[in-house]
Amino acid sequence: MTAPHDQPEHHDQHSQHSPTTTQLAAKPILIVMVLGFSSLCAALMQSLVIPIQPELPHLLNTSASNAAWVVTATLLGGGVAMPVSGRLADIYGRKPVLVVSAVILLAGSVVCALFSTIGPVLIGRVLQGFAMGYIPVAISFVREVTPPAMRNSAVAGISATLGVGGALGLPIAAWIAQDFDWHMLFWLSAVLAAIMTMLSILVLPHTAPADPGRFDYLGAVGLAVGIVGVLAGVSKGNDWGWSAPSTLAAIIGGLLVLVVWGFYEVRHQHPLVDLRTTVRRPILLTNIAGILIGFGMMAQSIVVPQLLQMPEATGYGLGQSILQAGMWMAPAGLMMLAFTPISSRLLSTIGGRPTLALGATVIACGYLFAVFLDGAPWQLMLATCISSAGVGIGYAAMPTLILENSPAAEAGAGVGVNSLMRSMGTTVAGAVMAIVLTSQTVSMGGTEIPAEAAFRTCFIIGAGAAVAGALVVLLIKRSRPASHVVETSEHAEATA
Q1: What is the pLDDT of residues 371-404, one digit of tens each?
Q2: E strand or H helix at 447
Q3: DSSP-assigned beta bridge partners for residue 449
Q4: What is the fold of 25-215+270-495?
Q5: If you write DSSP's letter for every residue of 129-152 in order, what string do you get?
Q6: Buried-exposed string 136-152: b where 16+ CB fall within 10 A, e elsewhere
Q7: For residue 303, what are the contacts with CB-CB under 8 A and spacing of at least 6?
Q8: What does each C-alpha distance from 360 to 226, 404, 414, 481 come to in angstroms?
Q9: Which of 159, 208, 287, 456 is the most buried (most CB within 10 A)?
Q10: Is the pTM value of this prediction over 0.70?
């Protein structure tokens, strides 16, 4: 039994070890709500312009190929920002990076809202993509500012926003684009970004940096060039042609830059990404699974809306408007949030490895459902809800596995790299689905449209990617459930 006069000494020692614990005890739920709301706002940028994509050449007075960059620009910005912002947060603290990310989102939204030409809109969309860096920093931050009892739920909820934002953004954007001027899309995102900025400044606490090291500027530039090259080549390959010099130059050039960047990082004293940590088996396999599960998430977001909007005259199309298609897709986003407490419970009872494998398996089940039952909108809605439940489970488990196997000084960068891997999966999914849908077509009114078999092929590919993700996860070394780890650490602290 601890003597009474020892208690104050223990309290002082604990306060010195974690100076923010007392401050955070009264408001962890508020902090998590702010981080979740802000992450959701950042994730909305993924699908913000999809409803107006066919009209962008006319709206921006440019060619269709130039207008397509309005979607791609945000993808590229997010791919660069997620690992870089994670590392910045490790060095300078989480709150400054979160606030700056929110301000960048506000600036990008205002630029897009004020202009109607391709140049400024592309700049604004890149800035909106940079704001995606908010999400991995928020995930690593929530591990620091929440008590053990709510940590898994908080990580699961914030991680799910990466998928929820894209799913919910589609019907919201479709409604605004249908009934208002297209600039209102960006004024809405500006208002959300302003709220996000104020909440981040006023509510989030400042915690000490996890790593006193220096930021690797040259490494950040090398990573950005490599990522942009690969993502641009993959995302535009179907438009440019997969054997076109521009496509090959982008992909091969990007890969070569990343190889050189890897050699540089291994020899750097303060690397942007510690590759020695990244290639550890649990982290490496989790990131590979992130690519496959990201693929599974995006495949349905691309294929299902097209099938819903296909004319009924085809015999397999469902004749829905873009707003109706968005509404049929919306429950899938809500399903990800609904599974947050379930994901948390699974993480605490069976651990991250089986939880992630289960999530990938559920995604595959949703796609298989769609292969056999796709004749009515409600059937596709049910299929997307099943897959989205799996995405919610998987997205909750991935950052947990990364954080459990990464040093505290690299937590932000580790989660950022995992978020990048998920983004790579969604990019590859977009390219693969485009290839399938354009390679199996039928003629209708002089126009080539995807055949029914193309949609089912896409569903089978999505299921295959998810199953592959589950198999990869099973190769990860078995670890103890999070609840056991928490109990052990609490017992050790009490004993000390």
Answers
A1: 888 888 999 999 999 998 888 888 888 888 888 8
A2: strand 447-450
A3: 442
A4: Growth Hormone; Chain: A; (1.20.1250)
A5: HHGGGHHHHHHHHHHHHS-HHHHH
A6: bbbbbbbbbbbeeeebb
A7: 433, 437, 455, 458, 459, 462
A8: 29, 20, 21, 19
A9: 159
A10: yes
